[in-house]
Design goal:
Structural class: alpha+beta
Number of helices: 5
Helix content: 25-40%
Distance between the termini: 34 Å
CATH architecture of the largest domain: Beta Barrel
Number of domains: 4
CATH topology of the largest domain: conserved putative lor/sdh protein from methanococcus maripaludis s2 fold
């Protein structure tokens, strides 16, 4: 029986070899359109926002506006306690009166000594001294008058007025607070200028500079598209977020676009010539960059010429044509002519073997 089993085993047909079929992910190449785009979230902000404060120090005794109040140029916003300023102004007036008295006396002495000099009753040196005294009194009077003007201006500075038409966006001080000269107490967003502030990642800054068009949509009204213009791009990245702040002007923004709204900014950038591939599709062999192209269920090696990077993708200048299917995952496990199974599609070669 053992001999029969041995003979039967020797005569049996060897098992068929199964073909090695590798699963891969692929990408069908398509020509790049005239432009590529990306979107970023931003905030509606005023183009000009003034942080104004009193030109003199003192205690705030009255506040005449609220946050959100519309204001006109020259409108009173806050009031300081004017007592000390009034006393300083009164002191300056008294100094002017004293200077006028000294000037009048010096002028009378000068006229009298001129007559005495004509009669040769006094020397020329005495007349020169009186002339100098008169000039000193005249200068003192001019100084006192200038001081009075300064104190009058200081008195008017006790009332803080708006420097332009706009709306109050913030109040940084309240009644009873003592503030120093120049301390910002009110913020005013000027009328007539609205823009969007966005943070640009490092790899998008150059694309932003080449943007052919900018479209802005607010979250409150996404159906209305506003034309934007890149007005400013910060030259230095923010140290915390490592992003660059860009400001998009909205010349045609209406009253429905309000400060503080959230907006979506779309940038259309002219696309460079060539086809785009992910980095995972490339491999290097014998010093040349190539990709695997799927043709009739098998792969073949195709050398390519690269044109540069576009974000996280590589631009291919030559070697491929639109419509070809390129392997994007598993490229290092393939060989020339190997059968592959595209993930997400039925493997034709495997089905054929099972039918047999």
């Amino acid at each position: 029986m053992a001999l029969v089993a041995t003979v039967m085993a020797a005569c049996s047909k060897p098992p068929d070899k199964t073909e090695d079929i590798r699963p891969v992910r692929v990408l069908q190449l398509a020509p790049i359109g005239h432009s590529v785009g990306f979107e970023l979230a931003g905030e509606i902000v005023p183009r000009y926002e003034s942080r104004i404060g009193f030109r003199v120090g003192g205690k705030i005794v009255e506040r005449k506006v609220e946050v959100g109040s519309p204001v006109r140029r020259g409108q009173a916003l806050m009031q300081l306690d004017p007592t000390d300023l009034q006393l300083s102004q009164a002191q300056a007036k008294a100094a002017v009166a004293a200077a006028e008295s000294s000037l009048t006396l010096a002028k009378a002495d000068l006229d009298r000594f001129r007559e005495l000099r004509q009669k040769n009753f006094v020397s020329q040196a005495v007349l020169d001294a009186k002339q100098a005294a008169y000039q000193s009194a005249l200068s003192g009077h001019e100084q006192a008058v200038a001081g009075l003007k300064v104190q009058s201006n200081q008195r008017s500075y006790a009332t803080l007025a708006a420097d332009a038409d706009g709306v109050v966006t913030a109040l940084d001080a309240e009644v009873g607070q003592v503030v120093a000269a120049g301390t910002p107490v009110v913020r005013i967003a000027r009328s007539g200028g609205t823009e969007v502030r966005v943070s640009i990642p490092e790899d998008r800054v150059e694309a932003l500079r080449r943007a052919a068009s900018v479209t802005v949509r607010t979250w409150a009204n996404p159906g209305a598209a506003l034309e934007g213009t890149v007005r400013e791009v910060a030259p230095v990245a923010d140290p915390a977020t490592r992003t660059f702040t860009a400001k998009i002007a909205l010349p045609k923004a209406g009253p429905e676009v309000r400060l503080g709204m959230t907006a979506t900014v779309s940038f259309a950038v002219p696309a460079p010539d060539g086809l785009r591939l992910p980095l995972s599709a490339l491999f290097e062999e014998q010093g040349r960059t190539a990709v695997w192209v799927v043709d009739k269920g098998a792969v073949r090696r195709v050398p390519v010429q690269l044109a540069g990077a576009n974000g996280n993708e590589i631009l291919v200048a030559a070697g491929l044509e639109p419509g070809q299917t390129v392997v994007t995952a598993g490229v290092n496990l393939l060989r020339e002519g190997q059968k592959v199974a595209i993930l997400g599609q039925p493997a034709v070669a495997a089905d054929t073997g099972a039918a047999k």
